[in-house]
Amino acid sequence: MNTLEAVGDLRLTGLTKRFGSFTAVDDLDLTIPQGSFFALLGASGCGKTTTLRMVSGLEDPTAGRIYIGDTEVTSTKPYKRPVNTVFQNYALFPHLNIYDNVAFGLRRRGVKDVKKQVDDILALVELAHLAKRKPTQLSGGQQQRVAVARALINQPQVLLLDEPLGALDLKLRRQMQIELKRIQTEVGLTFVHVTHDQEEAMTMADTIAVMSAGRIEQLGSPEELYENPATTFVANFLGQSNLVAGTVTGKEDGVITVDTHGVRIALPESRSRVESGAVIVGVRPEKVELAAGNAAIESGRNALPGGVVTDASFIGVSTQYLVKMPWGQELSVFEQNTGKEIYRPGAEVTLHWDATQTFGLDGSQDIEAG
Ligand code: ATP
To answer: To test ligand 1's pocket by mutation, which of 17, 18, 19, 197 has the most ligand atoms within 8 angstroms of CB?
Structure first.
């Protein structure tokens, strides 16, 4: 019962899964580089788990192929694929101690001398001192690490993690995110992590695929996705964005000019997905500052006057504002608390930001998507 020796990038081509007339995963083309920490990020029901289940072999694709390196594994039995999954519910054997839980996979494969391998893996997940305990005598985070150890001991090429931190409280989740990243760096295997938590994906992954309705909306590093979202869905799903509808009025020297609700906005051409017609201009709330009333704003900055503060929440490092604009839309502003004036609800303000921080999206989309 040897697993395949396949090594290399995990490649999905045209991968599709239909349940009756419903398409859960829609013609996915994706290459996940060997040794990377990859996150599939998306809201509930977008097809993340179904994609993982096809990679592990628990679900047959309706169409498409799965390769690891040059080896096609689309029809390979699950236990013969060099792939292992860590589930949210850990799936540990309650009657076995931690050592035996981890050794189980090796012993089942007929490996005789398991001690060194089990000791090494328990050291990797920092649980050597708890080897004699039963799973119920461990915390949630420790049980999670046993589950990771048990998956890694089979020496897969690809480790799939399906919302593995979903059962943990927030503080432990944060700790385990860093811990899993450390383990991945140490073992150097491909990790494919499924989550609906954008902060978790951004903390852990080298590359994120944002999924929506069975398709990939955008693929990139956390920084790329945050700084240059391709769609309103991504702009709203990863962090917060202020998105305002406008029309392109001109272009000169790498700068697109946009009219939005009667105000002229400068948009770097390099950060815009469109060059004419309807556009949605975006800026992240932490890039925006407030000025009192109708203040004159220095050149090189975009300014939206006529705002009225509707909410100001002091949260320590920053104050988060909601500002109602003359056209009725509410925009968000996060200002660092560096001794600046704090505006109260009712204050009249101008929003302004460095023009190079503006991004532009195709204007035919739904501004609220995501
Ligand atoms: P979650 O985060 O809630 O687990 P997900 O993104 O992992 O969501 P999937 O579990 O992949 O989503 O499901 C994608 C879609 O396919 C959902 O609408 C789901 O209801 C549907 N689906 C999944 N499995 C089946 C099945 N066996 N039969 C019919 N529909 C299914």
So the answer is: 19
One digit per residue, pLDDT tens: the chain, 370 residues? 456 676 899 999 999 999 999 999 999 999 999 999 999 999 999 999 999 999 999 999 999 999 999 999 999 999 899 999 988 777 789 999 999 999 998 898 888 889 999 999 999 888 999 999 999 999 888 888 899 899 889 889 999 999 888 777 888 888 889 988 999 999 899 999 999 999 999 999 999 999 999 999 999 999 999 999 999 999 999 999 999 999 999 999 999 999 999 999 999 999 999 999 999 999 999 999 999 998 888 999 999 999 999 999 999 899 999 999 999 999 999 999 888 888 999 999 999 999 999 999 999 999 998 7
Query: What is d(CA 223, CA 228) in angstroms, rounded to the nearest whole number?
Result: 8
The closest of 223, 178, 233 to 200, measured between CA atoms, is 178
Enter the tokens of residue 313: 């929440």
| Contact call for residues 322 and 332 (beta carbons, < 8 A) | yes
DSSP code per residue over 125-164: TT-GGGTTS-GGGS-HHHHHHHHHHHHHTT--SEEEEEST
What CA–CA distance (Å, rounded) separates 160 from 163? 10
Q: How far apart are CA 78 and CA 59, in angstroms?
A: 9
Using DSSP's 3-state secondary structure scheme, residue 255 falls into strand
Closest Cα to residue 362, out of 282, 303, 283?
282
Q: 136-157 b/e with 16+ CB inside 10 Å = b?
A: eebeebbbbbbbbbbbbbbebb
Query: Going by CA atoms, what residue is nearest to atom 2 of ligand 1?
Result: 44
Give yes or no for residue 45 CB within 6 A of ligand 1: yes
Question: How far is the centre of ligand 1, averaged over its atoms, from the C-alpha of 48 (Å)?
Answer: 8
| Residue closest to 146 by CA, chosen among 164, 172, 173, 171 | 164
Domains of the chain (ranges, CATH numbers): 10-227 (3.40.50.300), 232-362 (2.40.50.100)
Per this entry, what is the length of the chain? 370
C-beta 214 within 6 A of ligand 1? no
Could you tell me the pTM of the whole model?
0.89
